[in-house]
Every structure is written in C-alpha cells, then in structure tokens.
Amino acid sequence: MNQILRKRVLTPVTKEIVVAAPHIARKAQPGQFVILRVSQEGERIPLTIADFDRDEGTITLVYQEVGYTTRLLGKLEPHDHILDLAGPLGLPAELPDKGRVIAVGGGVGVAPLLPKCKELHRRGINLISIIGARSSDLIILEDEMRACSDELHICTDDGSRGFKGFVSDKLKQMLETELNPDEIDEVIAIGPIPMMKATCAAAKEFGVKTWVSMNPIMVDGTGMCGACRVTVGGETKFACVDGPMFDGHLVDWDEAWRRANSYREQEQIANERCRCGGDRQWL
Amino acid sequence: MALKKSRVEMPVQDSEARKSNFDEVALGYTEEMALEEAARCLNCKKPFCVEGCPVNVRIPEFIKLITEKKYQEAINVVKSTNSLPAVCGRVCPQEIQCESKCILGRRGEPVAIGRLERFVADWEMEHGNPEVPEIKPNGKKVAIVGAGPAGLTCAGDLARLGYEVTIFESLHEPGGVLIYGIPEFRLPKDIVRREVDYVKRLGVKIETSFIIGRTMTIEELFDKGFDAVFIGSGAGLPMFMRIPGENLNGVYSANEYLTRINLMKAYKFPEYDTPIVSGKKVAVVGAGNVAMDAVRCALRLGAEKAMIVYRRGREEMPARAEEIHHAEEEGVEFHLLTKPVRILGDEKGWVAGMECIRMELGEPDQSGRRRPVPIEGSEFVMDVDTVIMALGTSPNPILVQTTEGLDAHKWGGLITKSETGRTTKPRVWAGGDAVTGAATVILAMGAGKAAAKDIHEYLESGSADW
Ligand SMILES: Cc1cc2nc3c(=O)[nH]c(=O)nc-3n(C[C@H](O)[C@H](O)[C@H](O)COP(=O)(O)OP(=O)(O)OC[C@H]3O[C@@H](n4cnc5c(N)ncnc54)[C@H](O)[C@@H]3O)c2cc1C
Ligand SMILES: Cc1cc2nc3c(=O)[nH]c(=O)nc-3n(C[C@H](O)[C@H](O)[C@H](O)COP(=O)(O)OP(=O)(O)OC[C@H]3O[C@@H](n4cnc5c(N)ncnc54)[C@H](O)[C@@H]3O)c2cc1C
Ligand code: FES
After folding, report:
1. Which among A23, A39, A225 has the least Cβ separation from residue B238?
2. Residue A183: exposed, middle, or buried by beta-carbon count in 10 A (0-12, 13-18, 19+)?
3. E strands of B300-457, at which residues?
4. What does the CA dihedral B45, B47, B50, B51 come to, rounded to 10 degrees?
5. Looking at CA atoms only, how far is residue A261 from chain B in angstroms?
6. Contacts of A39 in chain B (CB under 8 A)
7. In this structure, are residues A216 and A39 in contact, taking their beta carbons and an 8 Å threshold?
8. Beta pairing, strands B428-430 & B228-231
9. If you take atom 2 of ligand 3, which residue's CA is the nearest one?
C-alpha cells in the first residue's frame, strides 16, 4: 500500500509522484485531497489529488518543497512507501456543465487546478487557462494544462516567458480588453493566498464569480480539530469538510494569511534541521 | 480490627516536579497499599457498588481475591465484564459511580475501588501474560468503524466468538480519545497500545488512515462481504462559542490542542515535527475532563498562568474530582462564574486578551443545574495570550451523510435501541460517544460489549427481522 510507482522532477523544487492507493483512487473526485505522513515522528500534511487513475489504482500528487515535511517527501523514490495516506477528503469541486471558464493557477497551485480543468474539458466547457510562476523554469504541468485548455496563457513575474507580471494582472488585462466578462461563467483560482486574493479582486471588478481552493493548516482533515478554520461570508467554516473550494469573493483573506503564518518560527526551526540532511541525530 | 475511616492515599509525583514533565502523575498502589486498602472492604451481601458500576464489575469479589493475594484471579473477575481495566482504573469517574454507593462512604471515605482495579490490571501487565483463548473461526465477518474504547471492545468480544473482525480507523493510530485526547500524564500511551495489541492478538485486523464515509461507505462494506457493521466513531467535532475573535492566532479548540500534543507529540517538538504555540498566559474555557487535561498540558508546556474559565460554579464542574484536585495542586487558577464575551487581538492578529462577564446562579435549568446569568456591567478584560475552547464535542455527521437509512438525532447522536445498539439501518449497530454524545470510557466500552452480544445473537439466529 501507498507505494510510490513513478516520480518526476518538474522544477528544482516541485515533484510529481504517482502512488498506489487503490481505495483512494476508486473514490477520488476533482477537488479532493489526501493527508499524509512520511515518518513516525512526522506531521500530517494535506496535498491535493492532482490526478487519479481508477484502473491502475493510483493517485498523483504534485508538491512543492516549501518546508520540512515536503522535503522529506521529496527524498522518497520509486519503490518507497508513504507511511500514512488518508483520503479522499474534502468536498468535490462543484463544476459547471456548460459555458466558459477561466482557470488561473499560480506556482504549485497549477497542480490542484489540473484535475478540475481536465473534468471541465471532459464536460466540453470552453476553458481559458492562465498559469504563472516567478520565472520560466518554475512553470509546471504546461503540457497537461495545454491539453485540456482551449487557450493557455503563461505569465512570469520576471518576464522570462510569456506575459510579464502576475496571473491576476493577466486576468485583469484579458477581462478589460479581449473578453466579454458577461460571457465568463466563472473563474477558478488556485495558488498562494496573495495570488488568490489578487485574482479575486481582479475578477470582482468585472462581476465574475470566482472559486478558490483554500489551503489552511490542517491536522486531521476530517472536521475534528478546527485548525483549518476560514471565515467565508462572515461565517466560520472548516476547510477540510466544508471546502476546500469556497466563493473567493466572500473569503476573509487577511485572516487566512495570518493563520497560515501561525507557525512561522517553528517552521524555521524544522527547516534548519532539514538543511543539515534531515538527520535527527543532529539535534 | 477497627476499620480505617480514610482510604490509603495514592502516591503521586510531586506537584512541583510534575508541572514540567508529561510522566504519569498518579503512581499506583504498591502491594502493601493495595492489601491495606482491600482490607477495608466490608464485602457487603448486597453490594451497592456493583449497581453503581455501568458494567457491573463484581467488585467485592475481586477485592476479596486481592486480600487473598490471588491477583490473577482478581483481574480475571474484573475482566469478565470490563475489557479495559488498566484504562478504567485510571480514568473512570469512580466518585459518581461505584464509590458513590460504598457503605463506608456514609461515615468516612469509600473504598478506593478504582485504585484497586488499576492495581490488579497493572499487576497483570507486569507479571501475567494475558493469554489468547483458542478461537474457532465461524466464517462470518464484522466491520467496526473507529478504534476507540467502544470499537476495540466490540471487536475483541466478537473475535473471541470466532468472527473475522476488521476495524477501520480514520487516524493513523488506533485508540480513539485514549490516544489523541487524554494526555500521557494521566493515561500512558503504552497502556493503550498494550490494549490495542491484545485485540490484534485476538486476530482483529486494524486498517488505519481509513475513513468510513470517504475511503469506503458502509454500503460498500456490505458489498465487500461483511455481515454486520458496528459504529464506534465517537463524538469528535469541536464546538466554538461563536464570539468575536475566535479565529485569532492563539485560539485552539481543545481537540486540536490535545491532538497536537498527544497524538502528534508536539510537546517533543522539534524531535517530532508537529508544532504547537502555547503561551505564557493560557485560558481554557470549560471545566470538564477535557478542560482539565488542556489546562494541565498548558502548564507543562511552560505557561506561567494556566486558568480555567467557567460560567458556572465549583459544584457544577463536570470533571473528575481527582483531576480538579490535581489541577489545583499544580497551581491552576479557577475563574468561576465567568464567561468570555470576546477575544481581543494585537496588531498582528494574535490573542492579546479576553473580555469576560461575571455570572451569578439563577433558577435551575433542564439539567437540574442552576442557570448562570450575566451580571450587567461586570465586564472585565483578562490578560491572556492563548485561549483553548473546551466546550464539548458532537458526533461527526460524515456517516449519516453517506449512509442511506442511518438516522441521527438533531444534535448528531445516532438513533439506536438502547439495550442492543441497533441503529435504524438493518445490520448496523452503534455505541459509545457516537450515540450518547461525549460521555465516558466505561459507557463506551459497555456499549461495545452489549452490541457484540446482540450482533452474535442476531447473526446466529439467521433472522432477517430488524
Ligand atoms: C487542501 C490542501 C491542499 C493542498 N494541496 C497542495 C498541493 O497539491 N501541492 C502542494 O505543494 N501543496 C499543497 N498544499 C499545501 C501543503 O499542505 C503545505 O505546503 C505543506 O503542508 C507544507 O509542509 P512543510 O512541512 O513542508 O512546510 P512548513 O515549513 O511546515 O510550512 C510551509 C507553509 O505550509 C503551510 N503549512 C504548514 N503545515 C501545514 C499543514 N499541516 N497543513 C497545511 N498547510 C501547512 C504553512 O502555512 C506554511 O506557510 C495544500 C494544502 C491544503 C490545505
Ligand atoms: C480530553 C478528554 C478527556 C477525557 N477524560 C475522560 C476521563 O477521565 N474518564 C472517562 O471516562 N472519559 C473521559 N473522556 C471521554 C472518553 O474518552 C470518551 O467517552 C470515550 O473515548 C468514547 O469512546 P468511543 O469509542 O465512543 O469514541 P472515541 O474514543 O472518540 O473513538 C472513536 C474513534 O473513531 C474514529 N472515527 C471517527 N469517525 C470515523 C470514520 N468515519 N471512519 C473511521 N474511523 C472513524 C476516530 O478517529 C476515533 O479514533 C475524555 C475525553 C476527552 C476528549
Ligand atoms: S483539519 Fe481538523 S478540522 Fe479541518
């Protein structure tokens, strides 16, 4: 169980693994996620199910090495096993059956965006995708995104490829000049909190509904702890069971940003350790 | 020999020393202490204590065996009705159960039944080797949802009867609240693991990280060939007060706080990876066992002030007497008749204070307890940097939402026939906190036992009636 079958290095800090998880693959829907643990002392971290293959009994995870646990995960190779893997968690994304959608992905957020785009494509939706990263070498899953999009736009912060600027700027430009906002049924935006916040702001100007996928800190992922609280439309929601997709125009972004940074200091301590080879003896 | 009015004291770790460690507080009787305490039992012809025990442990019988130094026989008597004696001896609210009925309690202190139960259970762990009975497989399969006391007990009893039993547990470690909720200093995790291992030795399979309702539904369990399902999924959903400031950094549900500490071992960060931010001035809202556990963890994580904030009075505090006593010894402050109205934050969004209002007791409410009413204009601000909400929990709706025909009360508890644990869905039984709401280990265990008996009778009878 939970054996890693294949691994791809997408960028220096982003990896894709295909994991044998037949039970999870059988039930997975776009929008859902898993919680995993890599070691006996390990933290439980959530990752989106970026793809699944029911016949093969596998799920695909794409993750960016941002801290201790994701780096430990990055050290695993094909044939290794993931210690604990639970899912599928969260509500499946509610996707439209017809019309036109703009999908916006920032950084590793393209990974959770992909299964939704694939499903939209399967449903025959006209899909415009905008994906971006800091620079061209950090763009991930371009081919996969191109395959399910009617139009694909690439943005980089440093202008090393495509549009120079944030994905939210590109969205705004397109809504201003090329597209008729009334013909856009919705925007789906996934990525870091500041990127989702900015994308919502851009879409709101044109009155376009925007779905976002929240990524708060989680522990159990089943509604038991409340670590994942987000305020949506003035109400407290648990992202793991009420989400992770929410109406982005109703999310309290400043609170979400604050809560995401609750453990800054501790994350740095853990990170220091990882630079020393992740050797626990070193403590 | 004149009867002693008071019981033999429980040896405990010194209150100063224990404030900075997570080792067990109550150390357990020595053999001499146990013999001395056991000698106090009058061996009543009509033992009221047995009626006071939710699973009717034959108390005078096992205590008499202690006086005869027949410890293995004593533990066997206990285990004939209680499968988790080492746990129950430590965490049961004896003072409102068996011990409240003890005749000695009328003139002095009741026999320390819980401590004696713990003594024989620990004796067996040290000396005996709980034997695995010979089991004849009967070819029938039962699925159990949740590896808490209810699920483990139901599984163990069914395995002994020859059933092929699989427990599905959503967390990565079995034990339920015993593992993720109750701290090490009150219930060492080795004891829980030993109980879990014993259940495994009986042949029970435990699938962890397996969430019924998500990874597989109850209906699909039947498709897989299970003949019956028992739900022991507990009451894990935390409640919040819905007051302003509850989502500030530094506000935890007790469930999150305790899960980080106990299941994830955050008190050993960075040796363990899961962090916790527990401040210097910690307020825990509530006064049940959960609140006492949280506030005592806060002390151990370095709080200079650890406070209980409770809207009712001392008499109404629902925690076990021993926990309140230990908390007081350790220096926990009790702010009674006090209710939080909002939590204040600093410019970075961390807790910087808690505004409360003082309460007074009015007329008794439905629970028979006097209803606390706010005293107008008595608001004041408490200086705190961490707030932990221990207001109670309710059952997770995930199973009801994903299982057709499985009905629950409005508040979330599954509807069952009380004696047997049969739910509204044929071939599905339930028991423990999932049915009663947050209650006790012994009641959960008892419900698991009762359901195992009924599952066996039902499957044996071959009847289709429900
Ligand atoms: C529903 C959901 C889906 C996600 N999907 C993906 C994905 O497909 N790919 C991906 O790369 N990342 C995803 N994330 C984010 C991922 O969980 C975090 O990057 C990861 O937990 C970081 O752990 P770390 O120890 O490596 O880093 P840390 O150093 O611990 O933290 C780095 C950052 O990650 C966040 N984080 C830390 N611990 C947790 C936790 N237990 N749960 C959630 N976030 C945490 C913190 O806000 C912090 O800013 C998702 C998060 C959620 C909630
Ligand atoms: C902090 C704390 C202190 C306590 N102190 C005491 C005490 O001193 N004395 C006392 O008698 N009682 C105490 N209690 C109460 C006691 O622990 C509970 O009443 C008892 O554990 C209930 O047992 P249970 O088996 O019904 O549920 P739980 O112990 O809650 O176990 C349920 C299990 O089911 C799992 N689960 C839930 N949903 C699913 C699903 N869909 N699929 C798979 N698995 C699932 C959960 O992860 C959990 O492991 C305390 C409780 C807490 C939280
Ligand atoms: S992660 Fe614990 S409730 Fe959502």
Report:
1. A225
2. exposed
3. 305-309, 333-335, 338-345, 351-364, 370-374, 380-382, 386-389, 393-394, 428-430
4. 120
5. 9
6. 273
7. no
8. parallel
9. A225
Query: Is the Cβ pair B240, A226 closer than 8 Å?
Result: yes
- ∠ CA(B326), CA(B332), CA(B333), 5° rounding? 135
Report strand pairing: B338-345 vs B333-335: unpaired
CA dist A172 and A168 (Å) reads 6
Question: How confident is the model over B307-351, as pLDDT tens digits?
Answer: 999 999 998 899 988 899 999 999 999 999 999 999 999 999 999
Tell me phi and psi for residue B54, to 5 degrees. Answer: -60, -25
Measured CA distances, B451 to B31, B231, B445, B455, B458 (Å): 36, 10, 10, 6, 10
Measured from the Cβ of residue B36, the count of other Cβ atoms closer than 10 Å reads 15
Q: Give first-to-last CA distance, chain B, whole Å.
A: 57
pLDDT of residue A274: 58
Residue-wise over B340-357: b if at least 16 C-beta within 10 A, else e?
A: bebbebeeebbbbbbbbb
Pick from B45, B65, B59, B44: which is nearest to B99 by CA?
B59
Inter-residue contact B392 to B434 (CB < 8 Å) = no
Rg (C-alpha) for chain A, rounded Å, is: 18
Contact residues for B376 (Cβ-Cβ < 8 A; gap 6+): none
How far apart (Å, rounded) are the C-alpha atoms in residues B369 and B81?
Answer: 33
- DSSP label at B422? B
| DSSP-H helix ranges across A15-126 | 22-27, 68-75, 110-122
H/E stretch holding A173: helix A167-177
Task: Write out chain B residues lying below 8 Å of A42, CB-based.
Answer: 272-273
How do residues B224-250 score in pLDDT, each as one tens digit?
Answer: 999 999 999 999 999 999 999 999 999
Going across the sheet that includes A51-53, the strands are A4-11, A14-20, A58-64, A51-53
Q: Find where tokens 């825990």 sit.
A: B284
Q: Give the C-alpha separation, B283 to B303, whole Å.
A: 10
Cα–Cα distance for residue pair B64/B76, rounded to 1 Å: 13
Pair of tokens at residue B189: 């995790």
CA distances from B323 to B309, B329, B443 (A): 16, 10, 19
Tokens of B335: 């702010």
Say yes or no for a CB contact (<8 Å) between A229 and B260. no
Q: Which two tokens stand for residue B449?
A: 């036992």
Residues of chain A with pLDDT under 70: 273-283
User: What is the value of ipTM here, to two decimals?
Assistant: 0.90
**For residue A277, what pLDDT is reported?**
47
Residue A38: CB atoms within 10 A of its CB come to 25
AA letter at A189: A
Pocket test for ligand 2, best of B252, B317, B441 (most atoms within 8 A of CB): B441
Establish whether residue B439 lines the binding site of ligand 2, counting it when its CB lies within 6 angstroms of any ligand atom: yes
Chain B residues at the A interface, defined by Cβ less than 8 Å, are: 170-172, 208-211, 214-216, 236-238, 240, 242, 246-247, 249, 252-253, 255-256, 259-260, 264-265, 269-275, 277, 348-349, 396, 398
Question: What's the mean pLDDT in B65-76?
Answer: 94
